[in-house]
Amino acid sequence: MTKQVATILDVPFTTRGFRETVDHITERIQGGQKTHVVTANPEIVMVARENRAFRSIVEQAYVVPDGIGIVYAAKWTNQPIYERVTGVELLEALMAKADQHQWGVYLLGAKPDVIHLAKDKLSARYPNARIVGCRDGYFRPEEETQIVQEIAEAKPQLLFVALGAPRQDEWMAKYRDQLNASLMMGVGGSFDVISGKVKRAPEIWQKLHLEWFYRLASEPSRWKRQLAIPRFVLTVLKEKWSSRS
């Protein structure tokens, strides 16, 4: 039997493929198990490596491999991760489950126009899913108590939070015991994609595993963030070579 966790630079990833991940998370929701999903790419792994408090959050979460760099790192270190589980696709698949089971969904984060567009698109695509709340990410610290209370009273099965990483996961971990959500998941820029404000890379780029390069070409201002990718590769290889010696 394949082990269910693979460790990449001290971050524990689930080894389940996409469909298996969706089914397993659905089982957890139906079984009353609370789940904090972290969609981790090389950038998140490097943040966890350098930020002890964030690493502690990640170590307790359900971490999925969102990024081809994670799949390659697993291959180089002989670990059984064979498939990406991207945040935006996992969000859509869980919305399909919400549609099927009439789950409550709360959407938090992104810009005001983006979150409302995303809500409208998701409501149209998944009419039986109950969107029980929606709030943009431009709130002041003193408004957090009210937002947490609103989510807690709504008791959503799915809470999707787009506040950027690592802030979104730190926020969910801070209020985890109060939020009353079966599943909490940081979704980064997924609402931008769902709303149509940002285009995903064409399918050919996705198949060639060059989605990161397409995003960099589309948004050159991302170059500093993308430096995490070569740093991640070098760190994985360095650890591999040092473990051999």
Structure description:
By secondary structure, the protein is an alpha/beta fold. 52% of the residues lie in helices and 16% in strands. It is built from 13 helices and eight strands. It has helices at residues 18-30, 42-50, 52-59, 68-76, 87-101, 112-125, 144-154, 167-175, 190-195, 203-207, 211-218, 223-226, 228-244, and strands at residues 5-8, 11-14, 35-40, 62-65, 104-109, 130-135, 158-162, 183-186. α2 crosses α3 (52-59) and α2 packs across α13. The longest helix is centred in the C-terminal third of the chain and has 17 residues, at 228-244. The two termini are 29 Å apart.
Write a brief structural summary.
With 245 residues, the chain is of the alpha/beta class.
